[in-house]
Write a structure and sequence with these properties.
It is a single chain. This protein has ten helices and nine strands. By secondary structure, the protein is an alpha/beta fold. Strand 2, helix 3 (126-137) and strand 3 (142-149) form a beta-alpha-beta unit. The model is unreliable at 1-15 (pLDDT under 50).
Amino acid sequence: MTPPAQQPRTPGSGARGENRIPGDWYGKPYHSLDAWCKNTLRRKCYKVALNAHMTCPNRDGTKGTRGCIFCSGGGSGEFAVSTAGKSVARQLLEGEALLSGKAALSGDTPCIIAYFQAYTNTYAPVEFLEQIFSQTLSSPRVCGISIATRPDCLPEDVLALLSSLKERFPGKFVWVELGLQTIHEDTARFIRRGYGLECFEEAFRNLRCREIPVIVHSILGLPRESRAQMLATNAYLNRLRPFGVKLQLLHVLHGTDLADCYAKGEFEVLGKEEYLELAADCLERLSPEIVIHRVTGDGPKKLLIAPLWSADKKSVLNGLHRVLRQRGSIQGCADN
């Protein structure tokens, strides 16, 4: 199942200060994933992060051995359930058990989004991918899967598999998450992303022509980037009109090359108010049709070096709502 076509919303009227939150956003000043689930699936949904024990071309020597400069040893999968020696199926069962107290899980309605998060989740033989994705989609509690990957890891046989999964599981969704991070090639080289913007655009086109919804990751606060550059990436995303966007605050984590740069004083992380103002700027410029899957990010506390204020996620979310409320603005109010 792909997200249904949505009618463009008019987020209020007139200049900033006169914008009204649409009723189907459930009180949030942006079009959240939670709102999408409630409006489209008619239920609240919960994510279970999974580790399929893959690697990455930026780690196995194909394009590099140390990964992106900000990526931890866990390949951004630290929030998966305990994975040592466990299959994806076992991880999913344990993730469901951790959520067993949630009201939505008291019945038989599918309400779990299985999030293949760690490393590059299409970087494996297609037979293995077919096995783990099909097995996961077959779970009666799973409403769909979200696959985090790189745009340079979507060959034709993987694209064909994703299309076939859509056909075989018509009542469920298949999403792909692509890490763009920035449109600026100088920054991309510095963070060792390993592919150019053209590669991302080709992958995006290939997925879109197969009607596979794409969620794009963007990092705010990358070293050497100005506010204008970050907003330029955001403007690019708005023109692209993906299904979803994740706004990620740059975290400095132990064990990364970014941590070494930070220790040497080569850059500064964003302050809390600075980030909140920047995130609000981005949301104002993103179409209300785009689903916001994240507005801050979760740096694992045991690894987090900076910014330490980001560890209090509730405070960050409340702060963002406060900034938007003070401005009288909501997502899309400055969309051109």
